[in-house]
Amino acid sequence: MSENTHDKLPIRMLHDRVLVRTDSPEGERRSGGGILIPATAAVGRRLSWAEVVAVGQNVRTVEIGDRVLYDPEDRAEVEVRGVAYVLMRERDLHAVAADRFQGTTDSTGLYL
């Protein structure tokens, strides 16, 4: 098989793995007041949000399309068809945000 053929094969996530696409590229960001914060600025441990694009068959709490909170330092990056993704285990996720949680008793009442 040629390399181009491998690039077109379908991908299935295994076990408890979750594949996410980050909301924004790492680098400069803005504060709530609009101040530009450079990528080199020292920040404490900061969690990030991402969108779930694929899940393994043993994943129980997240679905494709959910937004999840994760620690960007505990991640493995992979590029698929020119798009960068983050691969992690379900247990490494800190929170899930989804429309299906509206009106449930176990949600915090906070909204994105």
From TrEMBL:
<keyword id="KW-0143">Chaperone</keyword>
<dbReference type="InterPro" id="IPR020818">
    <property type="entry name" value="Chaperonin_GroES"/>
</dbReference>
<comment type="subunit">
    <text>Heptamer of 7 subunits arranged in a ring.</text>
</comment>
<comment type="function">
    <text>Together with the chaperonin GroEL, plays an essential role in assisting protein folding. The GroEL-GroES system forms a nano-cage that allows encapsulation of the non-native substrate proteins and provides a physical environment optimized to promote and accelerate protein folding. GroES binds to the apical surface of the GroEL ring, thereby capping the opening of the GroEL channel.</text>
</comment>
<comment type="similarity">
    <text>Belongs to the GroES chaperonin family.</text>
</comment>
<dbReference type="Pfam" id="PF00166">
    <property type="entry name" value="Cpn10"/>
</dbReference>
<protein>
    <recommendedName>
        <fullName>10 kDa chaperonin</fullName>
    </recommendedName>
</protein>
<dbReference type="InterPro" id="IPR037124">
    <property type="entry name" value="Chaperonin_GroES_sf"/>
</dbReference>
<dbReference type="InterPro" id="IPR011032">
    <property type="entry name" value="GroES-like_sf"/>
</dbReference>
